Amino acid sequence: MRKNLVLLLGSLLIALPAMAQDSFLADKHVTKSVNCTACHETQAPKQGAEVSSGKCVQCHGTLENLAAKTKDKKLDPDPHYNHLVNTDCQECHRGHE
């Protein structure tokens, strides 16, 4: 019984952030007039095309800058301020998923 409860709570913790998102990251970029070429360097990227973190930091800044911006949200731990060096943005942020 206890094991099932732990599994259920763990599943909810994983699923809730995904359920809270009302659109894909790419859709949020489009609403801010950021077109495909800004990230993909082509207007019609292939299915599953990835974007380098170098592209992300050109607009969003470094992980350190993002950690400072999200500090007031009191995320524990703050995913932008971590011990992982060179973590790829796409590990957490998936543009079309």
Describe this structure in words.
One of its GO terms (cellular component) is cell envelope. InterPro entries: Multihaem_cyt_sf (IPR036280), Tetrahaem_cytochrome (IPR012286). Residues 29-97 form the Tetrahaem cytochrome domain. Its cofactor is heme c. With 97 residues, this protein is mainly α. Helices cover 48% and strands 0% of the residues. It contains 5 helices and no strands. The chain has helices at 2-20, 25-31, 36-40, 53-60, 63-70.
Provide the low-confidence segments as ranges: 5-12, 15-21
The share of residues in helices is 40-55%
Structural class: mainly alpha
Task: Report on the biggest sheet.
Answer: none
Number of helices: 5
Task: Report the sheet-strand fraction.
Answer: under 5%
Helix-strand sequence: HHHHH
How is the topology of this model organized?
Blueprint: H1 2-20, H2 25-31, H3 36-40, H4 53-60, H5 63-70
